[in-house]
Amino acid sequence: MLNRYPLWKNLLILFVVLFGTLYALPNLFGEDYAVQISGTRGGEVTVDTVAQVERSLERAGIPIRGLTFENGQMLVRVDSDEDQLNARELLVQELGSQYVVALNLAPATPAWLAAIGGEPLKLGLDLRGGVHFLMEVDMEEALSKIREQMVTTVQDRLREERLRYQRVQADGNSIVVTMRNEADFQSAIGVLRNQYQGYDFRTDSSSRTITLAMTDQFLQETRSNAIDQNITILRNRVDELGVAEPLIQRQGADRIVVELPGVQDTARAKEILGATATLEFRFVDTDNDVQDAIAGRVPFGSRLFDQRGGGQVLLENRVILTGDHIVNASVGYDESNRPQVNISLDSAGGRMMTQATRGNIGKPMATVFIEFLATGETTDEGRIAFDRVEEVVSVATIQAVLGSNFRITGVGSVQDAQNLALLLRAGALIAPIQIVEERTVGPSLGAENVEAGMKAIIGAFILVLLFMGIYYRKFGLVANLALMTNLVMIIGVMSMIPGATLTMPGIAGIVLTVGMAVDANVIIFERIREELVEGRSPQQAIARGYENAFSTIADANITTLITALILFAVGTGSIKGFAVTLAIGIVTSMFTAIAGTRAVINLTWGRNKRLKELSI
């Protein structure tokens, strides 16, 4: 038949519409006002804390709508934003500085919807609230780490070639190598010149020294790489925090902007993002007495380190391995059910660990935890001041040759082990960072933006509905039905996509899509009118109208879709948000405007063989 869809096609269209509607439903239930309570610096909320919170809110007359307690955190749901603010103020005074009490919004999705993966659409920082950090990278520390690595690699290279050196040391941005004799000096020139071609290479025969100086280009690339690598590592850490659609980008020469929508626990975010933690593995110096070192007689080639839990231990200066080779870290438990961190190394790290331990079975090896903590002060040069905190978290005797997988014990509490594993798994920052600016956007402020955005969508929607209904009559009502379905499907698709986030530019994309969606129906209806003017029957006019309009609609929407994809590929932050909603809206509008309206028109007018006129 001319204007009939087969049953399977009608059922398929109905299924797609119902599926999109189902996953858009969670957005109708909204979110509950909530207060989130968590411990600081590894602390945990206990059952006693839960009881204390319940008693405090009950005395203050603040009704509790719901309470959940899991993973060392507590979420208290209340009835209104006023109760939320009052509860936070009360609990901050009651619990003190040991806990972080933050505003939050908790989804009110029914359990049956949540069971099939139904979740409300995630909102961006401008709508949902969250935290904004401006971070500054300590470039001097980045260069210092590179100099230390250079000294170690030069020493290892000379040892491999069996060339005897007197000393290898850093001097500013240069590495100075002093050889023992003339023969080794001449051989070292060839070896080092080939390996370090990107450096200014200078030699002095009289003192048998070779100087490898970092060029200006090398320093510039190093600073740029430090920023890029820190951004990558921060993204990994944000993924660990479970933040959807974060914004992490460079600002200027040495600063990074981080925006985390939906995060109200600023203490947890700062602890994870700002921590510059790594590990070093060193041999314990068993040839000298640690008491002599504590008394001030530290032997050459060794250093005293503080041990976690008290005491000091004497370690060799040589670093067996650094945390740069760690590819994975997870929390486990030892034979005594105490927390431990299971370490996995890359292939290079596994070889280094094997070589180091093969000839040292029975010798104790220490795990040194290193963290840079900002002091809040600046140096004379205007840079951020950091304290380098080093402590031995574990000393264990090597029982067998170690490879790419091993474990470290004595890491403290379960929370300490989880934090350490997270930091090592996400990677150690190339250089310390300092949070120089911090802003928290509360959910109540985001609600104003949501309200303004919804007014824009509803306003545009109503005007389009009125125009289509008046100008195209009954066919206009079909277009309006398709337009409403399109809006529901956009929300449903975005709710289904993991990580998709709605921002103010995204709302602008939806408003634009509303206009573009109705364009397709305008083109189709005008084609139908033209066919009726040319004397064709209503059934023929409907069929030819859709057929002739399809190519025009497809061309216009495909070019717009390509533009949206390019915006998503090259854009950042808000531009990507606009591109995502625009691209989804184009696809859903093509479906509803062409397949959806055709199905409704076929069912309404296509069965009437004696149809004489159309309400268009």
UniProtKB/TrEMBL annotation:
Q: Record's Pfam families?
A: Sec_GG, SecD-TM1, SecD_1st, SecD_SecF_C, SecDF_P1_head
**Where in this chain does the record put each Protein translocase subunit SecDF P1 domain?**
227-285
Q: Which residues form the SecD export protein N-terminal TM domain?
A: 2-103
Among the record's GO biological process terms, what is one? Answer: protein transport by the Sec complex
Tell me the ranges covered by the SecDF P1 head subdomain domain, including all copies: 307-431
* Keywords per UniProt: Cell membrane, Membrane, Protein transport, Translocation, Transmembrane, Transmembrane helix, Transport
- Subcellular location, in the record's words? Cell membrane
The protein's superkingdom reads Bacteria
- Please list every transmembrane segment annotated in the UniProt record, as residue ranges: 452-472, 479-500, 506-528, 549-571, 577-601
Which residues belong to any copy of the Protein export membrane protein SecD/SecF C-terminal domain?
433-594
Q: Does this entry carry the keyword Transport?
A: yes
Primary location? membrane
A GO molecular function annotation here is: protein-transporting ATPase activity
Q: How does it sit in the membrane?
A: Multi-pass membrane protein
The record's Gene Ontology cellular component field reads: plasma membrane
Q: Which family does it belong to?
A: Belongs to the SecD/SecF family. SecD subfamily.
Function comment = Part of the Sec protein translocase complex. Interacts with the SecYEG preprotein conducting channel. SecDF uses the proton motive force (PMF) to complete protein translocation after the ATP-dependent function of SecA.
Quaternary context = Forms a complex with SecF. Part of the essential Sec protein translocation apparatus which comprises SecA, SecYEG and auxiliary proteins SecDF-YajC and YidC.
HAMAP family according to UniProt: SecD_B (MF_01463_B)
- Name assigned to this protein: Protein translocase subunit SecD
